C-alpha cells in the first residue's frame, strides 16, 4: 500500500508513523546518554528550573490541602477536584515542621503513592494511544505510545509532578471514544471530559467536538457531570461553596503575576512571537504591555477562526487539532506542560497516515509533512543549539498558522468561491 509524494517518489503509508517513534525515541536515548556523561549539563534544561524545584507542583498542593483549606493560599487557583485527589497524599503524610513544602517527598509513603499515581496514568496513556494506532497493538503502535511517554514534554510534566498527566489522559480518552458506538464507552468518555476540565479548566474547549457533531444530549450530560464534579468537592473543604469566590480571586491574581513568565516560557502565541523577536532582534527586554495587549487581541481573532473552521473539516484529527490550538493559545497564562494536550491530535494524525493509501498532491503532502515536523518539535527530547529555535513554542506558532490558513480556505470553499482543495477532503 503506497502513496505518492513529490513527483516520482513512492513511500509506504506507515513511514511517517515509524519515523515519528524512531526520531523521538532516538532523541530520548541521546538525551539519556548525554545526561549520564554530564549530569549537570544542558540536558537538565528538559526539566523546569533544571530540577531546582523537583515535584514542586505536587508537594506544594499537598501542603495546600493538608488542613482542608487550600483556597486560603493565593497559589490555589484550580477547581477543587485535583485538591481532593492530593488530599489522599496529605492524609498519609505529616506536615513538615519548620521545613520546606518539598520535604514531603522525603516521606516514603507519600513518595510511593505518588509514583504509583504517575505510573498508572502513564501506563494508561501509553495503552490507549497504542490501541488507537492499532487494535492489535502491533510493533509500530507500541513504539509510538512509548515515544509519547518518553517525550521531552512528558518528562517536563513528570518532573513537575503536575496533574496535567491525569488531565491529558482523560482528555485523550474523551477524544478517542466520545463517538464510540458502545454506549458505556461513550459515557465514560463524557465523564472523562468533565474530569479533565475540572482539573485544568481549558480542556472544556474539546467539548467543541460534540458541538460539531450536533450531539446536544451529550453536551447536556457533560455539563451535568462537570457541574457535579465542580460543586461537590468544594463541600469537602473548609468554607464549602464560598470557596468559589476565593478560587476566582486566586485565578485573577495568578494570571496577573504569571503573564511575564508565560510570555517567555509558555505555549501560547505570545511566547512564540517573543522567541522569534529575541532571536532576530537580539532583544533582552520584556514585552511592552501594548504589544502584549495587541497579541492577545490577535489570539482571540484566531480562536474564532479556528473554532469556525472546525465546522468545515470532516476528518477527526483536523477538528481536534483546531480545538487543541485554541486550548493552547486562548489562556493568557499557559505553561509548557500544556503542550501535552497535543497528544490526541498527534496520535490521530499518525493513525491517518498509517491508513492512507490514496495518492496525494504535492501541496497536500507538503502540508502534512510540515505538521509532522511540528509534532516532532513538540515531543523531541535532546537539547542542542538546534532545539533552542525549533522547539514547542515555534511549533505552536506554525501549527496555529497552518490551522488558521486552512480554516479560512475551507470556509471560502464552503462558499463556492475557491474550487481547489489543497488540504484534502474535509
In whole angstroms, the N-to-C terminal distance is: 22 Å
| Largest sheet strand order | 1-2
Kindly state the number of beta strands. Answer: 2
Structural class: mainly alpha
SSE string:
EEHHHHHHHHHHHHHHHHH
The pLDDT mean sits at: 86
Largest sheet: 2 strands, antiparallel
Beta percentage is under 5%
Radius of gyration computed on alpha carbons: 22 Å
Number of helices: 17
Helix proportion of residues, in percent? Answer: 55-70%
**What is the domain tally?**
1
The assembly state of the depicted protein chains is single chain
Word description of this protein:
Helices cover 64% and strands 2% of the residues. By secondary structure, it is an all-alpha fold. The chain has one domain. The protein has a two-stranded antiparallel sheet with strand order 1-2. α2 (56-65) crosses α3.
Protein traits:
about 425 residues, 17 helices, globular, disordered C terminus
Provide a concise account of the structure shown.
Helix content is 64%, strand content 2%. With 426 residues, the chain is mainly alpha-helical. The protein has one domain.
Topology record:
Layout: E1 2-5, E2 9-12, H1 15-37, H2 56-65, H3 80-91, H4 108-133, H5 139-149, H6 152-160, H7 164-177, H8 183-200, H9 208-212, H10 216-236, H11 243-265, H12 269-281, H13 289-309, H14 316-329, H15 343-355, H16 362-379, H17 392-414
Antiparallel strand pairs: 1-2
Helix pairs in contact: 1-5, 1-15, 1-16, 2-3, 4-5, 4-7, 7-8, 8-10, 11-12, 12-17, 13-14, 13-17, 14-15, 14-17, 16-17
Amino acid at each position: 500500500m503506497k502513496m505518492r509524494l513529490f513527483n516520482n517518489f513512492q513511500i509506504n503509508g506507515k513511514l511517517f508513523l515509524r519515523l515519528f517513534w524512531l526520531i523521538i525515541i532516538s532523541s530520548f536515548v541521546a538525551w539519556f546518554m548525554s545526561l549520564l556523561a554530564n549530569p549537570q549539563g544542558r540536558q537538565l534544561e528538559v526539566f523546569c528550573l533544571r530540577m531546582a524545584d523537583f515535584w514542586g507542583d505536587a508537594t506544594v498542593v499537598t501542603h495546600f490541602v493538608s488542613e482542608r483549606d487550600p483556597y486560603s493560599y493565593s497559589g490555589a487557583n484550580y477547581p477543587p477536584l485535583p485538591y481532593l485527589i492530593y488530599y489522599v497524599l496529605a492524609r498519609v503524610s505529616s506536615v513538615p515542621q519548620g521545613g520546606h513544602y518539598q520535604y514531603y517527598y522525603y516521606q516514603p509513603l507519600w513518595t510511593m503513592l505518588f509514583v504509583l499515581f504517575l505510573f498508572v496514568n502513564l501506563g494508561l496513556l501509553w495503552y490507549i494511544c497504542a490501541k488507537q494506532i492499532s487494535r492489535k497493538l502491533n510493533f509500530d503502535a507500541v513504539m509510538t505510545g512509548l515515544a509519547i511517554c518518553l517525550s521531552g514534554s512528558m518528562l517536563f510534566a513528570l518532573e513537575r509532578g503536575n496533574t496535567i498527566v491525569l488531565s491529558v489522559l482523560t482528555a485523550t480518552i474523551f477524544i478517542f471514544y466520545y463517538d464510540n458506538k458502545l454506549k458505556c464507552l461513550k459515557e465514560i468518555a463524557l465523564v472523562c471530559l468533565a474530569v479533565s476540565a475540572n482539573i485544568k479548566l481549558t480542556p472544556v474547549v474539546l467539548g467543541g467536538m460534540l458541538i460539531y457533531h450536533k450531539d446536544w444530549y451529550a453536551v447536556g450530560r457533560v455539563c451535568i457531570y462537570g457541574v457535579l464534579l465542580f460543586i461537590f468537592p468544594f463541600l469537602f473543604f473548609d468554607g464549602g461553596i464560598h470557596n468559589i469566590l476565593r478560587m476566582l480571586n486566586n485565578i485573577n491574581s495568578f494570571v496577573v503575576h504569571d503573564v511575564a513568565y508565560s510570555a517567555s516560557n509558555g505555549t501560547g502565541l505570545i511566547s512564540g512571537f517573543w522567541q522569534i523577536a529575541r532571536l532576530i532582534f537580539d532583544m533582552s527586554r520584556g514585552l511592552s504591555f501594548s504589544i502584549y495587549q495587541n497579541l492577545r487581541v490577535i489570539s482571540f481573532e484566531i480562536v474564532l477562526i479556528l473554532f469556525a473552521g472546525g465546522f468545515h473539516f470532516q476528518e477527526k484529527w483536523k477538528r481536534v487539532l483546531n480545538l487543541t490550538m485554541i486550548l493552547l493559545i486562548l489562556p493568557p497564562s499557559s505553561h509548557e506542560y500544556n503542550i501535552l494536550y497535543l497528544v490526541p491530535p498527534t496520535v490521530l494524525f499518525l493513525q491517518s497516515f498509517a491508513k492512507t493509501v490514496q495518492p496525494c498532491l504535492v501541496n497536500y503532502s507538503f502540508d502534512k509533512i510540515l505538521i509532522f515536523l511540528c509534532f516532532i518539535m513538540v515531543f523531541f527530547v535532546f537539547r542542542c543549539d538546534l532545539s533552542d529555535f525549533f522547539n514547542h513554542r515555534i511549533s505552536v506558532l506554525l501549527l496555529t498558522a497552518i490551522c488558521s490558513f486552512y480554516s479560512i480556505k475551507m470556509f471560502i470553499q464552503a462558499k463556492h468561491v475557491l474550487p481547489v482543495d489543497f488540504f484534502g477532503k474535509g
